TrEMBL record, chains A, B, C, D:
Alphabetically ordered keywords of this record: Ion channel, Ion transport, Membrane, Potassium, Potassium channel, Potassium transport, Transmembrane, Transmembrane helix, Transport, Voltage-gated channel
Keyword Transmembrane belongs to the record: yes
Cited Pfam families: Ion_trans (PF00520)
InterPro entries tied to this protein: Ion_trans_dom, VG_K_chnl, Volt_channel_dom_sf
Spans traversing the lipid bilayer: 34-54, 60-78, 152-176, 214-234
Keyword flag Transmembrane helix: yes
Protein name: Ion transporter
Source organism of this protein record: Nibrella viscosa
Membrane topology: Multi-pass membrane protein
Cellular location(s): Membrane
Record domain Ion transport: where: 28-243
Amino acid sequence: MEAEQKGERRWQRRLHEIIYEVDTVEGRAFDISLIWAILLSILVVVIDSVESIAQHYGDWLYRAEWFFTILFTIEYVLRLISIRKPLRYMFSFMGLVDLMAILPTYFSLFLTGASYLLVVRALRLLRIFRILKMWHFIAEGRIIAQALYRSYIKISVFLLFILIMVTIMGSIMYLIEGGENGFDNIPTSIYWSIVTLTTVGYGDISPVTPLGRFFAAFIMLCGYGIIAVPTGIVTTEFMSAVQKGNSSQSCPNCGREGHDADAAYCKYCGSHL
Amino acid sequence: MEAEQKGERRWQRRLHEIIYEVDTVEGRAFDISLIWAILLSILVVVIDSVESIAQHYGDWLYRAEWFFTILFTIEYVLRLISIRKPLRYMFSFMGLVDLMAILPTYFSLFLTGASYLLVVRALRLLRIFRILKMWHFIAEGRIIAQALYRSYIKISVFLLFILIMVTIMGSIMYLIEGGENGFDNIPTSIYWSIVTLTTVGYGDISPVTPLGRFFAAFIMLCGYGIIAVPTGIVTTEFMSAVQKGNSSQSCPNCGREGHDADAAYCKYCGSHL
Amino acid sequence: MEAEQKGERRWQRRLHEIIYEVDTVEGRAFDISLIWAILLSILVVVIDSVESIAQHYGDWLYRAEWFFTILFTIEYVLRLISIRKPLRYMFSFMGLVDLMAILPTYFSLFLTGASYLLVVRALRLLRIFRILKMWHFIAEGRIIAQALYRSYIKISVFLLFILIMVTIMGSIMYLIEGGENGFDNIPTSIYWSIVTLTTVGYGDISPVTPLGRFFAAFIMLCGYGIIAVPTGIVTTEFMSAVQKGNSSQSCPNCGREGHDADAAYCKYCGSHL
Amino acid sequence: MEAEQKGERRWQRRLHEIIYEVDTVEGRAFDISLIWAILLSILVVVIDSVESIAQHYGDWLYRAEWFFTILFTIEYVLRLISIRKPLRYMFSFMGLVDLMAILPTYFSLFLTGASYLLVVRALRLLRIFRILKMWHFIAEGRIIAQALYRSYIKISVFLLFILIMVTIMGSIMYLIEGGENGFDNIPTSIYWSIVTLTTVGYGDISPVTPLGRFFAAFIMLCGYGIIAVPTGIVTTEFMSAVQKGNSSQSCPNCGREGHDADAAYCKYCGSHL
């Protein structure tokens, strides 16, 4: 009995190693296959939305979709049986994403009609979040994420300030253009302000009156100065992250810090680090 | 008599504490309620400008507008009677903003007609400035404001330089396109230059002649280099703010701050830190 | 004879002080008046190009133009007679700019016709360069100019690299869209590449074929990374300019550098700087 | 026999010096002539694609094209006979580029028809890569290239992150606008997301529904914060490149470089600098 349990545990542990970890050759191969499967399944959904392709290769795409759905279903079941606490996994963020990756296709059997199809297709694309699981492959991603996270509050405050500004600017513009020339109402004018301040500039709405153009030019020059702020924030965080990274070591002899990451000897006193 | 005056002072002081300060629980609650009231009242004005919504929910929006106006009127009166120098408050920037937040709705009783309505609506949106009162909630905002303030002169000089450049570029473009293809006059051409140099690029006016396109490409590549300048200015200010901020120690002798992180002696009076 | 010459010299020197220098009250007043005259004369030229204004206020603008032309002529003559080497001034850059500021209006007496008018108007705008004379008012301008000047070579090399890239990108796009959809020839396609890479994006020409859009998206993402380069160059120059500015002083006691601009005592050893 | 071989070697070595090296006056003159020839030949191809020019000066452009092709053919042959290992050169990147610079024109003798002409013309433009050979003229280019190369991995990770984001954003937008208003399918919506996030903003596709505009504004404000990331990465690399560059000293013991400006001991081997 105990031996059987142990045996069960052994293949479970083996499966767990392959599916959840990247230390073994098989685990690494599993992860890489999974990334390809995710990317290909996303490609299927994306090109399925192109009418001309869907008309010609609809059958193949339908089969490919079911192939990936069954593959991800098998993976989901294997994940459930190889983990010690299946419920905790099921209700974790990644567990829910994994479930969302397979449910829509099964739903599509019951829900028919073009409008439902659109939603189902979009839901399938949530699979893309599964790529985030592979993030641990990439060390560089952590540095960027940290720098962004640390500048998170400053950028939020900045965005709040931008929101106040675009509300005021949009309202003034609504007043100047007199509710015409595309500036039909204040929300639309605010939308235009954001399009202008972020230098996107679609041109679907653009000022026509001389005063409107003058004020628009003013907004653009403001945006010129303002676009510098988030850049300044993030750059500062990056640089202090790099400087912090350099000085994590202190010399055992003279105790001074600030050594490069590849330093083997203290640059101040010459003793081995 | 004196006791009564003291009693009066007590509720006045209590009211002052709630309205003007954030130290007490009630004061904090008051501030947060106020922010919500301001945001909701702005939302009412903004969506009231959308015709389709105004037609259906016009009555409700009208009532909501009056609700907020009366609320802000009560707040304004309370502010007046709870402060020691009401006149100074009335003519302060924030006092005028507070007054502007309630006046337009009362004006709308006397002024009728679509064109007046537009102005009244825009004036109501000045309430958004009242959110600036809440700025003290946000410590991060101060750092951004300081960095922008310190780079204020440099950015102004830079904008002056940009203004000279766009005048010249606009005039050349007016000459090249020969007053046609949307480049009808020099102000319009200057407007186009600003749209191009700031990389907004609406496309409402765009060069058509080969020479015009060549010159436009030249302007864009200039803008590429020039857009770097405000970013460079602001980033530099941010970084020196952070480096200064690292050494928040103040001198034990003269009490001044702003020493570098590696400073051992006060740079102002020379005493040991 | 000598006394007379001396007397002549005295009023000449006095005039020279007023016109060329800013140390005296009169010199400063002269400079400020001149800036206003230049700005107003530019304004006259700019608004004269707007047809609707020219039709109504044409006479006034014509008189204003002649007023400023005569004013600048007097100034030019005064500059000539108050300087010791008039010829050197005449053929200096500023002397030529000053001459260009008055000549076009006199030319307009002989040259008639709409096309000449356009050129004359544009030439008049060269007056704007005279504002550069006032640059010495602004200390901050020098820092920006220096940072830009020092990054001049790097940005030139970068622009050369961009020019090679846009030629290749434009040619590929010309090939993909098959000389249609606005991509009529290679120069136009290169123009489109520049519009896209600099994130201006007019939309007068935009890809229509799927492959064209795919490649355009690729160019945009490249531009995303590439726009960072001039910013990085200029920011680095700004920061080293600031750091240089800080460390211009070395301590007379310990000889170490890196003191702030406002430091009175060495931050390392505490001795007076 | 041996003398003859030596003589052959002598003119070969001389030719090698001129063609492959820049130490001699002739070598430098050869390189500069070559740059001009490349630039002019590119100009010929570029303006040949403009129909109005091709109609008038077609003959001259045809002759110029053959002149440059024969010139580059001679250069290619000289390169082959003056180098010791001709095969290695032939199959090197630069050798293949050199071959690509002459082949298309010869191909054009056999391939006729407008569609082939387009391809041949584009292939001829590959000559532009030959300018990269001249890169050694420019020292500044190396610094930029190094900074870009070092931030290569970080920017790649960042672009991967952007690709995931635009896929999600494009899909949501496709869902919101319901496959209409230009958002016909998911690839097109992803294209629109990239156009928006990179702040290019053609305006060929732009949201029309209120919810679509709201979400588009959200994407733009995200892009505002996100555009800061590559700038932050590159600027940080530039600055550490400059700081490293300041201390260009190499260790007298192990000869390695890259020490900080304040280093007194080699960080690799610990010997005194």
